[in-house]
Amino acid sequence: MSNYHPLTEVEAIEIAKTIPGIFDSEGELVSREIGDGNLNLVFHVGQPSTGKSVIVKQALPYAKVVGESWPLTLDRARIESEALKIEGRLAPGLVPEVYHTDNELALTVMEDLSNHVIMRQGLIEGGVYPKFANDISEFMARTLFFTSDLGMNQQEKKLLVHSFANPELCKITEDLIFDHPYTDADTNSFDPHLKEQAEKLWADTELHLEVAILREKFLTHAQALLHGDLHTGSIFITPESTKVIDPEFAYFGPIGFDIGAVLANLLLHFASQENWSADEASRQTRRQYLVQSIREIWVSFERKFRALWNEHGTDRIAKTAGYQDDYMQRLLQDTVGFTGAKMVRRIVGLAHVADIDRIPDPIVREKAQRLALEIGKSLIKRNRQVTSIEQLINIADSAS
Ligand code: ADP
Ligand code: MG
Ligand code: MG
Ligand code: MG
Rounded to whole angstroms, what are the CA distances from 278 to 25, 354, 378? Predict the structure, then answer.
């Protein structure tokens, strides 16, 4: 019999108390559920007398989407906890510290990052994050290199691939990113003014071919342990610090899928400047900042990944002449394709982004939506021809 049940705020306190070395035995603990409650509970447990706190995140056995509820494996809590530990080892300081894991209760007790803000909100408020490109490229280069066949023993990797199979969450991603947006699916959701744009997507066979190839890579290319959901809502940030959270979608997939998630969310924010910038001049400045971040993320990622390869590459495959250049070129092309796919789904698919959905004026919102769709479609269509990150940037610039 499983011991699983959704925790109350009082039970979250009891669990938090068992973590050694955080709280004073004297002072009272206060608990508050702060998650959005669609998939997981997130409790903030603090001790006012000492100012200490932890986060208790617990998976719920169902997903609540558009009023409906369907079962969803609790095993994702184990995946999230294990992924955070691996990421913390490979990229120290760039994820919350994990204090405790309970697979039966499907929970993780971790470092409280309430002194950071969720990057999506930070960007909407006009935040500038000078360390972000360096930190996120470091996170991706190190976690992805050291879990790939280039940086890890092949037999160990096979076992890890098995333990991170994550079939249910992969199926959600497959449907929502690579399937539903390209057909008249019930789960799709878009403003009525976008109906004609959506119908064009459903009829675009050139686009469908590229999406099928990206989907194949998503399903079969077990290149490295991905975060799997690396949008700006999974990043806690300040000007001085970056922390990646929420890797419950982690699985072994194509490296470009993670990089594409980051770039897509910066480009969605780029498209949303129709609203968030006050005038044309500040819009230009803001877009240049976002484009420069994208450039720096790719360039730093590539430099760091190549350096790790040169220093740690496994003899078995890493030393073949010409292989590194070929590999990096394919990574860039995958990145461009997945960037496009992750933009399109946020406009017509099930889950949108606040950057665009919160635009109050429907005409301004439609402009942002059309721009994001335009950029996304171009990136998908051209991904296999791209040879430089500047081409991705040109596509965004010339559409805007
Ligand atoms: P979900 O998988 O349900 O999206 P997240 O891990 O993204 O859950 O967390 C949801 C929200 O809970 C975050 O946006 C953040 O506000 C809060 N949260 C999650 N983890 C932490 C943390 N370590 N420190 C502070 N707040 C957190
Ligand atoms: Mg959420
Ligand atoms: Mg989340
Ligand atoms: Mg999540």
Answer: 51, 18, 27
Neighbours of ion ligand 2 (CB under 5 A): 36
Q: Under CATH, domain 117-399 is a member of which superfamily?
A: Aminoglycoside phosphotransferase (APH), C-terminal lobe (3.90.1200.10)
Question: Does ligand 1 have an atom closer than 6 angstroms to the CB of 59?
Answer: no
pTM over 0.90: yes
CB neighbourhood size of 328 (10 A): 15
- For ligand 1, say whether the CB of 114 is within 6 Å of any of its atoms: yes
Considering only CA atoms, give the Rg of the chain. Answer: 21
Tens-digit pLDDT profile for residues 36-48: 877 999 999 999 9
- The interface predicted TM-score (ipTM) is 0.97
96 lines ligand 1 (CB under 6 A): yes
User: Tell me: the pLDDT tens digits for 228-275?
Assistant: 999 999 999 999 999 999 999 999 999 999 999 999 999 999 999 999
> What token pair was written down for 46?
């603090």
CATH fold for the domain made of 9-111? Phosphorylase Kinase; domain 1 (3.30.200)
